[in-house]
Amino acid sequence: MKKGDASTFCEIIKAMSRSRFTLKVEASLFFLLLFVLPPLWAGYAPGEILLKFKPAITRSITAEVSVKKMLEVSISKVSQLSSRCKVDIPTVKDVLKEIGVLHLKFPPDSDVLKIIEKYRADPDVEYAEPNYIRHIFVSPPPNDTYYGQQWGLTKIWADYAWDVTKGDTSIVVAVVDTGVDTDHIDLLANLTSPKGYDFVNGDSDPNDGHGHGTHVAGIIAAVTNNNTGVAGISWYSKILAVKVLSDNGEGSDANVAEGINYAANRAKVINLSLGGTMPASVLQEAVNYARGKGCVVIAAAGNDDKNEKNYPAACDGVIAVGATDQNDNKASFSNYGDWIIVVAPGTDIWSTFPNHAHSYKEEVFNYDSLQGTSMATPFVSGV
């Protein structure tokens, strides 16, 4: 949608937000929670910690031009810190330069919570936290046959909006997810060039081995009016594929944050149909970085039918999206609460699916129906 189409945007948001639960800007004890050690059941990558030093030390690291020198300075600072804290010296796996966060790697059986407690007590440390695992928010589809294919488009009055604008090729929407089917007939013309990046495998091929990201991408910007498949909300916007979740639909905060940082330098809108219940400073910093670049960040609220926050949706500055059904009621699975900003269609949503083998289903089809706040989120991103 072009910059001047604010009135159309407002009309569509009104349609999406006809729900039985209240919508307010998130206001919580989020920042207090950042300084509380996580419970033992929280899911995180074994032996991994995300660490940020206080500003002066961080600047001394990120000011280095070469990656090699930046790693050398990081290793030196981490070694000094670890010696003071009387913990083993870890490997510096990566530096998230844009936000000054170090990705540390200890042996898998290390007690990272105890190490984090010691690190946090050091005056040179801004924060230290586990490398939490985030996951997709897709609920199992109903057993009955497809019903009301793409009913969501008429529900948000997309047909009226298309009379005003059909999107703009200058608008890039980043799908930070399981990747995107990069040769799908109904997506190919609307993918950016280059197509994106794979932070799971560390290469420039963000192809989707799960199916979730391809489905999300199609809701946003499937090629439309081509006598093929499905219609996207935006006919002409471009999709940037950013793979941060593996083919089982899960990925670490380090990957998600790197994906957000990457997208922030290349896109105007960032779609995050993923999350987890643990707050994380690294995600908030990545969101801050993206917003500082002028990006709109949109994330799924979660599928637990609870007034429970998921992150990054509940991060400050993110548009948290809940899901509604065809009757404008809260979808049975959708999280709810006054921290959710807007709602959108999220049940029986028809969209693109990989044309190759993938982990979500044994069958290979170009299109399929899914439901979840993961599906509601791209309705907002497409607008």
TrEMBL record:
Pfam families, sorted: Fervidolysin_NPro-like, Peptidase_S8
Keyword Nucleus among record annotations: no
Compartmental location: Secreted
The active site lies at 177 (charge relay system), 212 (charge relay system), 374 (charge relay system)
Q: Which GO terms describe its molecular function?
A: serine-type endopeptidase activity
Q: Which residues form the Peptidase S8/S53 domain?
A: 170-383
Q: Which GO terms describe its cellular component?
A: extracellular region
For biological process, the GO terms are: proteolysis
Record keywords: Hydrolase, Protease, Secreted, Serine protease
Recorded hits in InterPro entries, A to Z, give:
Fervidolysin-like_N_prodom (IPR054399), Peptidase_S8/S53_dom (IPR000209), Peptidase_S8/S53_dom_sf (IPR036852), Peptidase_S8_Asp-AS (IPR023827), Peptidase_S8_His-AS (IPR022398), Peptidase_S8_Ser-AS (IPR023828), Peptidase_S8_subtilisin-like (IPR050131), Peptidase_S8_subtilisin-rel (IPR015500)
Residues annotated as domain Fervidolysin-like N-terminal prodomain: 91-131
The entry's family comment says: Belongs to the peptidase S8 family.
Q: What is this protein called?
A: Uncharacterized protein
Source organism? Candidatus Desantisbacteria bacterium CG_4_10_14_0_8_um_filter_39_17
